[in-house]
Design a protein that fits this description.
The protein is mainly alpha-helical. It has helices at 10-13, 21-30, 39-66, 70-73, 77-112, 127-147, 156-173, 188-195, 207-228, 231-239. It has one domain. The chain has ten helices and no strands.
Length: 257
């Protein structure tokens, strides 16, 4: 059976017939839009994908761990309260982790840009300057995302800590070669262990599963990033971007998954 309307034209019919998945895939490929180079698009990507990593990691684990009781447990007020704290705390951490992953992906492209595409005032051997500008630009996007969120008031200090710490974290990571997404040192891992709404006695052997899920979701986001953005073009846009007032080191007092 096909899903085309009775009066569909041949062009409309292609891709609506469930029996032609190859034609559907080809049609989607031909309609693919140019890859993004705009920092604003990266800001939206950062917010959405950080929330994806946080919530999928937390909710999938809790659903598996509670099994058939999940439908009842998730509606318990006490569980909801702890889950709310967990998902926000993990979101603050994954926002930093995804930002760090983006930096590692963009850094080689930023250092390889032709002189004309680099930020004003830099030279061919001024790699430190380009690293610094890249870190500052990404920290600004990170903090812009945080500033647009509204966590519970009691978690505002955690948001502020995330905003204050992101530039230093990126600078420290730049002392080493870029990490692959599955090797990235994460802040979400210890935060998950601290805040998951499952008693520690019930997850004593679950460390590898928790970390594995987190890293798998980060790899998923990395693949989405590579498919969405033009790496060299995005690096050039970020390096050419003037310093942002809501940027590195600005504490966010309001910061959602």
């Amino acid at each position: 059976m096909d899903w085309a309307a009775p009066d569909a034209t041949p062009k409309q019919y292609i891709g609506t017939n469930w029996g032609d998945p190859l034609l559907t895939a080809l049609q989607r490929l031909l309609k693919r839009r140019p890859r993004e180079v705009a920092p604003d698009a990266l800001t939206q990507f950062l917010a959405r994908q950080s929330a994806f990593v946080a919530q999928k990691t937390v909710y999938d684990y809790c659903e598996v761990k509670t099994g058939r009781d999940w439908e009842f447990v998730r509606d318990e007020p006490a569980f909801r309260d702890v889950m709310e704290i967990c998902r926000w705390r993990v979101y603050f951490a994954t926002l930093g982790d995804v930002t760090a992953m983006i930096e590692a992906w963009l850094r080689p492209a930023a250092l390889a840009l032709p002189e004309a595409d680099r930020a004003p005032g830099t030279t061919a051997d001024a790699e430190h300057s380009r690293r610094e500008r890249l870190a500052q630009a990404l920290a600004a996007l990170h903090n812009r995302v945080l500033a647009g969120e509204a966590p519970p008031a009691e978690l505002a200090p955690h948001a502020a800590d995330a905003a204050q710490g992101i530039l230093g974290r990126l600078a420290r990571m730049q002392l080493a070669a870029p990490h692959k997404p599955h090797e990235l040192p994460t802040q979400a891992e210890p935060t998950l262990y601290e805040t998951l709404p499952i008693h520690p006695s019930r997850r004593t052997d679950d460390g590898p599963a928790i970390v594995g899920a987190l890293r798998f979701n980060l790899v998923v986001v990395h693949d989405r990033m590579a498919a969405t953005f033009d790496r060299a073009g995005l690096a050039a846009s970020l390096l050419a971007r003037p310093p942002d007032g809501a940027s590195a080191g600005t504490a966010a007092t309001e910061s959602a998954p």
